[in-house]
Amino acid sequence: MIEMHDVWKVYPNGIEALRGVNITIDTGEFVYVVGPSGAGKSSFIKLMYREEKPTSGVVLINGVNVKRVRDWKIPHLRRKIGVVFQDYKLLPHMSAYDNVAFALEAVEVPTKQIQPRVEEALELVGLSDRMKALPSQLSGGEQQRVSIARAIVNNPGFIIADEPTGNLDPENSWDIMYLLEEINMRGTTVVMATHNKEIVNTMRQRVIAIEQGIVVRDEIGGEYGYED
How does it sit in the membrane (predicted)? Predict the structure, then answer.
């Protein structure tokens, strides 16, 4: 599903964020991306949904070379990708329902399909009773649930989560992780960048560790491997 072949990412200021990365992530995997701050995790994640393009090398998503995707086709590529951010990125003037519906409207899903799909997504994340609430009326954990509902409403093949528990307390963090685990068990691939040592060490999934732009460890059932 996701392949990187000798991928380098060098920014205009000369910083080498990724250096010669070779990775394959298969359908249905749950993968943690870990490493010190500034190691290249965010660049690694952003390449997967074409927020950034590799300087050299090849990034394939379902066999599609993302570097060759024209800008106007990026929304079509992202229909198959759900993205969850640390800061939720909800539209503040829209209700939970409308934030999720907007993801469908943006890719021109037929109107008659929107309501049942939005309601199903919000039910899955446990927010059926909070559909009309604005982000300001929701807790941090609830806002992240809306973000996840928005990410899954298009039935994506995989979800990319960039520090999804970074702004949450431990209880809400675990709630979000159990939700992502449930989504993964339904067949969706999950790739998650995190600094949360306890979650990684407890859930024991595949761990890809990046240091100074290089993949230094890739192991099934791995540990976090860094001090807090």
Answer: Peripheral membrane protein
User: With bands split at pLDDT 50, 70 and 90, how would you rate the model's confidence at 1?
Assistant: confident
How many residues are recorded in the chain? 228
What is the DSSP secondary structure assignment for residue 215, as one 8-state letter?
E
Inside any domain, residue 23:
yes
Q: What is the pLDDT of residues 189-217, one digit of tens each?
A: 999 999 999 999 999 999 999 999 999 99
Structure confidence by residue, pLDDT tens digits, 128-163: 999 999 999 999 999 999 999 999 999 898 999 999
Rounded Cα distance, 194 and 183, in Å: 18
- What CATH number should be reported for the domain holding residue 201? 3.40.50.300
Number of domains in the chain: 1
Q: Are 183 and 173 in contact (CB under 8 A)?
A: no
Residue 136 lies in a domain: no
